[in-house]
Design brief:
- Helices cover 19% and strands 27% of the residues.
- With 199 residues, the protein is an alpha+beta fold.
- It has one domain (52-196): tt1808, chain A.
- The strands form three sheets. It has a six-stranded mixed beta sheet with strand order 3-4-5-6-7-8, sandwiched between helices. The chain has a two-stranded antiparallel sheet with strand order 1-2.
- Strand 5, helix 3 and strand 6 (142-147) form a beta-alpha-beta unit.
- The radius of gyration is 19 Å and the shape is globular.
């Protein structure tokens, strides 16, 4: 009688978490290539998709134009720049509307924002679950995903604690705007969602 071979998946071995200081030291030592687009998420160095598609670039540009026409002189916009959320997380959202001026962050990246936005195609699952939990944990009141595949603007709001979610937080409210809907943010005039999406 032949022995029965158990085909169990080996558990993932524990990995050493990176801190932001480790991340910076590795960059200074030249471990990462200059052209690499990276983020530190939950203590792991994540490679962002590169090169960037023209549709993705268009989405960033349209969101930037929208916010440029709305925000006050008390806020400013950061495009694909780091946010120092905590010691194991330094994401680079496509758009972040941040309080204060750029000069306020000469010595340290911002740890939170008034709003962050990601332009998403192949990363939609991670943007919803992982990035959503991370931004909620930072107390960011509003998180947008410009969903290119489904042609939606997903608006998440009201961050709340939830131990069952990544980073122990989630957004309580979700609004899905189709390309036939219009968007009003703060006191802006209504903007057709279709104008934010590539044709």
């Amino acid at each position: 009688m032949e022995p029965v071979i158990q085909n169990h998946m080996a558990p993932r071995p524990p990995c050493r978490k990176w801190t932001r200081q480790d991340y910076y030291r590795a960059a200074e030592a030249g471990i990462f290539k200059p052209e690499e687009r990276l983020e530190l998420i939950n203590g792991e160095v994540i490679t962002k998709l590169s090169p960037q598609s023209s549709q993705h670039a268009y989405g960033i540009q349209t969101l930037m134009n929208l916010f440029n026409g709305i925000i006050t002189e008390k806020d400013h916009i950061r495009i694909q720049l780091p946010m120092a959320i905590n010691e194991e997380n330094e994401p680079e959202p496509d758009i972040a509307v941040v309080a204060g001026s750029a000069r306020d962050y000469v010595r340290e990246h911002p740890s939170t924002a008034l709003l962050v936005a990601e332009v998403s195609d192949s990363t939609i699952a991670s943007d919803r679950k992982v990035k959503g939990g991370l931004y909620a944990s930072a107390g960011i009141p509003e998180y947008w995903i410009l969903n290119l595949n489904d042609r939606l603007l997903e608006i998440y709001g009201n961050p709340v604690a939830d131990p069952n979610e990544p980073f122990g937080h989630r957004y309580e409210t979700v609004q899905m705007l189709t390309e036939n809907d219009t968007l009003t943010w703060r006191s802006s005039l209504p903007v057709p969602v279709k104008e934010l999406l590539p044709d």
